[in-house]
Amino acid sequence: MLKKFFLTTSSGILCSRIAGFVRDLLSASILGSGLYSDIFFVAFKFPNLFRRIFAEGAFTQSFLPAFIASKHKGAFSVSVLVIFSALLVLFSLLVGFYAPFFTKLLAYGFDAHTITLAQNIVAINFYYLLLVFLATFFGALLQYKNHFFVSAYQTILLNLGMIVALLLGKDKDLLEVVYYLSYGVLIGGIGQVVVHFYPLYMLGFDKLFRVGIKQVYLCFKSPSQERKKATLKGELKGFFKQFFPSVLGNSASQISSFIDTLLASFLATGSISYLYYANRIFQLPLALFAIAISTALFPTIAKAIKNAQQDIAIQHLQQALYFLTTMLLLCTLGGVLLSEFIISLLFKRGQFGAADVIQSAAVFRMYLVGLLPFGLAKIFSLWLYAHHQQLKAAKISLYSLIFGTICSLSLMPYLQASGLALSSSLAGFLLCFLNIKAFGFKRFLGMITLRSLLKLASFLALETLALLLFLWCLGAWHTQHALQRLF
């Protein structure tokens, strides 16, 4: 069952990322890596950050345990839905009314003219926050019934909305293309929400919502329901007490990327785009392996801990450790050796030239330094969440963020955008170290065997030889074609 959930989640992420790469390919070709691409990426950065944090478990890891334990599931779920929806609508309206201020906040290095161009784009993209929440909320309810398919695949609709928008606007003025792209985000978000309706109906959640609305109404209108009202308030208080630390604990790499974008606005034009494209590729193996396996593994780990079956939980973590270490080291090695080839293959066309490839590849290599630490931190943080230590996980993430920000401010003047990416990776190492420390060094060392290390080393040596052979063949092919052009 665990393998089935992992494969469903992983395949959904893969399909979504393929659609995302098609979107980025079109974006790089049409917008390039200049002023207008920077404007869109700044406008989309916070909504996309919000989406990634929610999608990677911050909401589900808090909501599902509270929902399962709730005595009035209908009232609890409706209350959470209404509270979040109201807050996000108000926040989006606030951003719309004070768009110049929030735009300056997101990209402090932008000049007055760029702020004027970007403010409406920022306001439009912020309405995506509500759609992200609704999709995540409905997805969490489906996961309660062990229905993972829609949650895994719904992000494809966001990418499809943006792809269609780019195709429709490709012959327009570049600023107009950015508007098309922003409305494509909203249309894709609506699709992400709507796709949940049918499975929710088939699994009977429409009845839950009807009962919940009635329960909430009676709680606040009938004096005889004071005990039920007090119970509901206690459940909501407990949920939010776990939710906010969970958000911070799950969002270290995403917030680090957000800070990178803010600081990159002080660098040369195009720096934000280099960070964006490099981070997009970096996030693929992280999502495909680390996020997918942690999503599938968390219910099993939590259940084992609850039933005092610690050995079973450690056994599952050990398997995840070996799998992730192998796959993420493979991705790191391959990515470093083939960085320029990968960037060129994916993005070098239209407005995205050879200089952009070199800059993006350098940033990509710096991000890859932290791939394994971020992945391992993801699975070992499950131990804390399963023990209801969300606050401790949040503190660990906060220490990592502070360290990463200090590194960014120190390295940015010397290494430019690459320095920001390297700082993010260094923060990942600290995040991994602190999560393993919380898990216990003795437990961690007990999971490592000499046989497994030898197998891993042999596997990596073979992969290195294969990659070097590929690079040699690639170089020979380029040399041959260069000679043919000369003679």
From TrEMBL:
Primary localisation category: membrane
UniProt pathway: Cell wall biogenesis; peptidoglycan biosynthesis
Record's keyword terms, sorted: Cell inner membrane, Cell membrane, Cell shape, Cell wall biogenesis/degradation, Membrane, Peptidoglycan synthesis, Transmembrane, Transmembrane helix, Transport
Gene Ontology annotations of biological process type: cell wall organization; lipid translocation; peptidoglycan biosynthetic process; regulation of cell shape
NCBIfam families: murJ_mviN
InterPro entries from the UniProt entry: Lipid_II_flippase_MurJ/MviN (IPR051050), MurJ (IPR004268)
Cellular component annotations (GO), alphabetically ordered: plasma membrane
Keyword Chaperone part of the UniProt annotation: no
Superkingdom as given in the UniProt entry: Bacteria
Originating gene: murJ
Similarity annotation: Belongs to the MurJ/MviN family.
PANTHER family on file: LIPID II FLIPPASE MURJ
Classification lineage: Bacteria, Pseudomonadati, Campylobacterota, Epsilonproteobacteria, Campylobacterales
Any one GO molecular function term: lipid-linked peptidoglycan transporter activity
Protein's name according to its UniProt entry: Probable lipid II flippase MurJ
Subcellular location: Cell inner membrane; Cell membrane
Membrane-topology descriptor: Multi-pass membrane protein
